[in-house]
């Protein structure tokens, strides 16, 4: 197939001939010997042979144009950037991705069966004297980027997972992939089975749209087969935190555009940075998916836009907090593990609540960082307890205990005009919450109480403890819950919003936050059964549990012995 005579033009001609001669039903059994019957029919139904690909090495655009012409191919020039192949070459040859000008072209080819296919031509420009000749020689010999590809006809997660599982059963191994924002497509690469009867190294599934959720599991399996690379990537996690924090701190996202590219020099002038160093930072955050790099400069992605100040769902404050005080305290994680003492207190000489309360700017940043995880709250206002309270003829009151800046209570009141609210918090947080709810037009329906957990207001219908208990050890949690239980009437409900540790050891954000809470506040995440015991010690009963985004949960709690009709 693609490994015939030397010379890029000869290799390209061989690829064109292969694409013309093959079809989906005939090619799949050649790639996956033993594949037949129902599984073959299923694969033929859900994917189709679309192209074969190879990497060529023209010295410039004119040479690439001539090569295509010699092979009877017509393609619009210049090529579009190829993010995935560029990154693979950068890793394989330990070269900065910015030095590798890799483009992609897809000239059309008609198959003998009448099907419309393409030859995917990756072009790494190798100008004379560029020092890239060794890369070109190695890639021609090894043909790492030589592959055959199938388009997925029905791009939904179930179909994608099924196709990946079938490939694996017949000997294919995950071999990377990525999302290309320039064409809004997701690529899944597989190593071809050793028994394949087609001379290609890899198989590709191409799926229109953004499917990075399914891709994440595919890439994780790929990395698991390369333990040294996996460990190295894990060890550089601190670099990622700081890169994103500095990206936000310099307000680079605010100076960028999601629709057009912006040059480094222009960005550097706007944010007050050294252009060369800013370019290095941008290339790194491009690898993280916060920006993309094209011929017209750098462009902000949807992920990067979350680091804009004031953007809907902005997580800028969270980046500054995790890259600031909490980053510093994590340097003392070993002290916490050895001694049981809280690293934050060891570093700053006081607990983080007192430390932030004494610094108004830091306190405001912390409150905004807490609100940055507000996606967890999205389904909370529709919880049956709140819906039922909102429908009560006499109205109902929601008491948000330690409600921060009022983010969650504001959502609840906005969703249910029949509800009133009470927010209990420290003095500075009460003022922030008052301002937030008044600006939202909800201030008239909410009372504000300055105080501590001992001051939980009585007489509410629904009480809310959102991300509070994980700040404290078990004894303090029991004390907080007892204050709530004493304030609650017999009919009242308590909704506890927390991340719950999985009981089966599955991957969860709760496990990461368990480490964070231990290091920074002396608290912890807990399993549902652990929470159940804490509730029981305070005279309460766990009666229900429902999932939330970001691995959160709502725990529905009532007084022990109280009637429950849910």
UniProtKB/TrEMBL annotation:
Protein name per its UniProtKB record: Methyltransferase
Domain O-methyltransferase dimerisation intervals: 233-307
The organism of origin for this protein: Streptomyces phaeolivaceus
This protein's UniProt keywords: Methyltransferase, S-adenosyl-L-methionine, Transferase
Pfam hit, one: Dimerisation
Cross-referenced PANTHER family: O-METHYLTRANSFERASE CICE (PTHR43712:SF2), PUTATIVE (AFU_ORTHOLOGUE AFUA_4G14580)-RELATED (PTHR43712)
MF-aspect GO terms: O-methyltransferase activity; protein dimerization activity
Annotated ranges, domain O-methyltransferase C-terminal: 333-540
Listed GO biological process terms: methylation
InterPro entries noted in UniProt: COMT-like (IPR016461), COMT_C (IPR001077), COMT_dimerisation (IPR012967), SAM-dependent_MTases_sf (IPR029063), WH-like_DNA-bd_sf (IPR036388), WH_DNA-bd_sf (IPR036390)
């Amino acid at each position: 197939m693609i490994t015939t005579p030397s010379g890029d033009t000869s290799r390209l001609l061989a690829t064109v001939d292969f694409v013309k001669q093959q079809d989906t039903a005939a090619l799949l059994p050649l790639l996956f010997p033993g594949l037949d019957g129902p599984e073959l029919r299923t694969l033929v139904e859900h994917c189709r042979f679309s192209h074969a690909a190879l990497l060529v090495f023209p010295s410039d655009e004119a040479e690439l144009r001539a090569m295509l012409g010699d092979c009877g191919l017509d393609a619009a020039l210049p090529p579009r950037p190829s993010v995935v192949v560029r990154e693979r070459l950068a890793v394989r040859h330990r070269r900065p991705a910015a030095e590798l000008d890799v483009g992609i072209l897809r000239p059309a080819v008609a198959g003998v069966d009448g099907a419309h296919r393409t030859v995917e031509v990756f072009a790494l420009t190798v100008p004379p004297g560029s020092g890239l000749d060794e890369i070109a020689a190695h890639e021609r010999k090894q043909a790492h980027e030589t592959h055959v590809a199938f388009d997925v006809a029905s791009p939904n997660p179930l179909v994608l997972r099924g196709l990946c599982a079938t490939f694996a059963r017949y000997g294919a191994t995950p071999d990377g992939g990525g999302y290309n924002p320039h064409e809004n497509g997701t690529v899944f690469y597989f190593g071809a089975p050793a028994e394949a009867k087609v001379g290609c190294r890899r198989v590709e599934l191409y799926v229109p749209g953004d499917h990075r959720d399914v891709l994440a599991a595919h890439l994780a399996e790929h990395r698991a087969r390369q333990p040294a690379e996996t460990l190295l990537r894990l060890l550089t996690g601190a670099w990622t935190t700081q890169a994103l924090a500095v990206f936000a701190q310099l307000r680079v996202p605010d100076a960028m555009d999601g629709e057009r590219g912006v040059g480094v020099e222009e960005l550097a002038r706007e944010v007050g940075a050294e252009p060369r160093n800013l370019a290095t930072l941008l290339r790194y955050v491009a690898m993280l998916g916060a920006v993309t790099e094209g011929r017209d400069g750098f462009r902000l992605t949807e992920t990067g836009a979350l680091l804009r100040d004031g953007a809907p769902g902005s997580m800028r404050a969270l980046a500054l907090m995790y890259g600031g005080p909490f980053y510093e305290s994590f340097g003392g994680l070993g002290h916490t593990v050895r001694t049981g003492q809280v690293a934050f207190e060891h570093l700053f000489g006081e607990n983080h609540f007192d430390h932030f309360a004494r610094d108004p700017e830091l306190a405001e940043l912390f409150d905004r960082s807490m609100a940055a995880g507000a996606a967890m709250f999205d389904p909370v206002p529709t919880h049956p307890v709140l819906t039922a309270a909102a429908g009560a003829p006499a109205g109902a009151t929601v008491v948000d205990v330690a409600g921060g800046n009022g983010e969650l209570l504001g959502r609840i009141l906005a969703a249910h005009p029949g509800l009133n609210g009470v927010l209990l918090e420290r003095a500075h947080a009460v003022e922030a919450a008052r301002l937030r709810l008044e600006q939202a037009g909800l201030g008239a329906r909410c009372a504000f109480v300055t105080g501590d957990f001992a001051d939980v207001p009585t007489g509410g219908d629904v009480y809310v403890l959102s991300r509070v208990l994980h700040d404290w050890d078990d004894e303090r949690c029991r004390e907080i819950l007892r204050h709530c239980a004493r304030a609650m009437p017999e009919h009242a409900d308590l909704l506890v919003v927390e991340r719950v540790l999985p009981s089966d050891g599955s991957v969860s954000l709760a496990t990461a936050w368990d480490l964070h809470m231990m290091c920074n506040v002396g608290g912890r995440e807990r399993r549902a059964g652990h929470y159940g015991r804490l509730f029981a010690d305070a005279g309460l009963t766990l009666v229900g549990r429902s999932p939330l985004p970001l691995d959160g949960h709502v725990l529905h709690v009532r007084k022990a012995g109280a009637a429950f009709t849910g």
